[in-house]
Amino acid sequence: MKASIHWVIAGGGSGGHVTPAIALAEQARERGDAVLLLGAKRGMETRLVPAAGFELLALAANPVYGTSLLSRVRAVPGMARACWLAWRALGSFGTDFVISVGGYASVPAVIAAVLRRIPIALVEPNAIPGRANRAAARRASQIFVNFERAKAAFESAGIDRVQRVGIPLRKSIVEGFGAGDADRATARTLEPPFRLFVTGGSQGARQINEAMIEAAPLLKAAPFEIEIVHQSGQADRDRTDAAYRDAGIKAVVVDFEPDMFARYRWADLVLCRAGAITIAELALAGMPALLVPYPFAADNHQAANARDFTEAGAGVIVDEQPLPGARVVAELTALFGAPQKLVEMSRNASMQARPDAASRILEDCARRLEP
Predict the structure, then answer these.
(1) How confident is the model at residue 72 (pLDDT cuts 50, 70, 90)?
(2) Is 109:36 a contact under the CB 8 Å cutoff?
(3) Span 4-39, pLDDT tens digits
(4) Could you give the CA distance from residue 317 to residue 295 in angstroms, rounded to a whole number?
(5) pLDDT > 70 fraction of the chain, expressed in percent and rounded
């Protein structure tokens, strides 16, 4: 095996792509390898990658798929230049392997790798493969997926170089949650008051906030005691806090939750979105969930993510538009009325954990470089 491998990790735009990119970079650095990240100037990577201590080449790439014809035409010159800069960067860096984590920001590096005949691997975080990874699939030496649905999607297209290894998560996340907390299911006796953690992500989620505001007076009359921690985002914080207070519900409402580890450990159940990173965190924490897929996600991939998690017996989907507070209360009543069900869901969630995804991906790719 080559002593020191030069990895280029390409992609970004959203946190669901940037997080696995940084996780792979951390693993590469731990191996003693060299790593360069390629992303887009408009993506979250411009802030998160340098903060993590890695070099980022940010290219002026714009989305081509899912936009108007005029936008696609306007994007072509910029994409061509981005491909040229990526081609030059791959050569000067002495790249051995390119790993795409998806998103439009990955396209220039993948095209440049094909032109330079550098091996490519794809990492697909979501249950429905993204358009960039679908376009690159036949050029890839190996495809690594997080969900069984993604594996089936690639295989149905005649591509059999697919492994389900999970999604690479940053070392701090894996260590914070533990490597799949299989003992969590029996660590706490589930009894009233039950503990619900509500989160819509770092900015909150209006749909979830509105549902809980509507649910608050119904919860007071529900046949169970409840305590709530609700990460609402700044815009809805005061309204959400007032709804709980007026209903006499014991709740802590925060704009942003900096210690997700502590909140997951505290909770009996989470009400949340169904992004790939969220699902992976739930698995690591052994946390059952009521999943509210973001309805405007590309290709409705959050709904597919949620189906994989619920079919494993780890969650329940609540996806009505808009989401009625009464539906939330009904689901909570069913689960808190049968605590053993939550224990089983917790155990099933832990069985989905893949804390070693980053190391498995790099080890597999490194073996492909052996003479």
Answers:
(1) low
(2) no
(3) 999 999 998 878 899 999 999 999 999 999 999 999
(4) 12
(5) 91
The domain locations on the chain are 6-169+355-367, 176-350
Does residue 173 contact residue 284 with C-beta atoms inside 8 Å?
Answer: yes
The CB density around residue 171, as the number of other CB atoms within 10 Å, is: 16
Rounded to an integer, the average pLDDT of 94-122 is 95
To which H or E segment does residue 228 belong?
strand 226-231
For the domain bounded by 6-169+355-367, which CATH number is listed?
A: 3.40.50.2000
> To 5 degrees, how large is the angle CA 15–CA 229–CA 14?
5
Angstrom CA distances, 279 to 65, 102, 173, 188, 287, stand at 26, 18, 13, 22, 9
Taking the C-alpha atoms of residue 26 and residue 23, their distance in angstroms, rounded to an integer, is 5
Parallel/antiparallel/unpaired status of strands 56-59 and 34-40: parallel
- Structure token digits, residue 264: 């997951």
Same fold for the pair 6-169+355-367 and 176-350 = yes
Write down the pLDDT at residue 67.
53
On the question of pLDDT at 261 being above 90, the answer is no
- What is the band of 202 on the pLDDT scale with cuts at 50, 70, 90? low
**Domain 176-350 class, CATH top level:** alpha beta
User: What average pLDDT is seen over the chain?
Assistant: 91
Render 126-157 in DSSP notation, one character per residue.
SSS--HHHHHHGGG-SEEEESSHHHHHHHHHT
Q: C-alpha angle with apex 331: 325 to 334, nearest 5 degrees?
A: 140
